[in-house]
Design a protein that fits this description.
This protein has 226 residues and is of the alpha/beta class. It contains six helices and twelve strands. The strands form three sheets. Strands 2-3-1-4-5 form a five-stranded mixed β-sheet, sandwiched between helices. Strands 7-6-8-9-10 form a five-stranded mixed β-sheet, with helices on one face. A two-stranded antiparallel sheet has the order 11-12. A hairpin with a 2-residue loop joins strand 9 and strand 10. The longest helix is centred in the N-terminal third of the chain and has 14 residues.
């Protein structure tokens, strides 16, 4: 499997490609694409980029949204890796509580069945009771009871730390304090390249995790207090 990491460059005169490393059975490549103006992709640049990828046998790439246009040429482009943080929402919430000195119960608002269950199971290691606001509450609560024997609540206590699975700006909040998804950084030592943006790192980690090439325990998250 070969993965390309695409970044825009105003220095190079043409697209440059370089193999970074072997990550197990995965080969990682860096592609610097020449853009005279940020966000401007001409047909010539697109065709040359696609040709470069095809010649190298790369069919999946990590890139900013401006490069998603190449998906029309049979290249899979992953721009969003927010699921990496959402799957670790329990860890993020605990970091938020510890750093801000908040002692309160947790309420998980929205989110997919899988992510809510993962978050609940993590939080129940520290808390005796958590609360869930979700259209699939009964299915989720049954799964959690089956796994842990814990009963989750569907009401909303007065003092809580809210985990808003569908909100990027106020991902975790308590009163007037809040943290966005961008306040949490993904840490994977083998993939901590200095030139790789946080957004692209999340997308890369997401691909590798879903493909089974990166174990979840090898990925951590950090919280930057505002």
């Amino acid at each position: 499997m070969k993965i390309g990491i695409i970044s825009a460059s105003e220095k190079n005169k043409k697209t440059q490609i370089e193999k970074i490393c072997d990550f197990g059975a995965v080969e990682l490549y860096r592609l610097d694409v020449c853009l005279k103006r940020k966000g401007t992709l001409s047909k010539r640049i697109i065709k040359h980029l696609v040709k470069t990828l095809e010649e190298q046998g790369i069919t999946i790439c990590v890139a900013d949204k401006e490069f998603s246009v190449i998906s029309g040429y049979g290249i899979t482009v992953v721009c969003d890796g927010r699921d990496v943080v959402l799957q670790r929402a329990g860890q993020a919430a605990m970091l938020f509580a510890e750093r801000n000195g908040i002692d309160a119960d947790f309420l998980i608002d929205g989110g997919s069945f899988n992510n809510v269950c993962l978050t609940s199971l993590f939080l129940l290691r520290e808390k005796r009771r958590i609360y869930i606001k979700n259209a699939a509450f009964y299915e989720i609560s049954e799964e959690i009871f089956h796994e842990t024997g814990a009963v989750v609540g569907c009401d909303e206590p007065e003092k809580i730390i809210r985990i808003s699975m569908n909100s990027s700006e106020q991902f975790i909040s308590s009163g007037k304090l809040f943290a966005s998804l961008c306040d949490f950084r993904v840490v994977a030592e083998e993939l901590d390249f200095g030139w790789l943006s946080e957004e692209n790192k999340r997308a890369l980690v997401s691909i590798l995790e879903k493909s089974g090439f990166l174990e979840k325990k090898r990925v951590k998250i950090e919280y930057f207090l505002k």
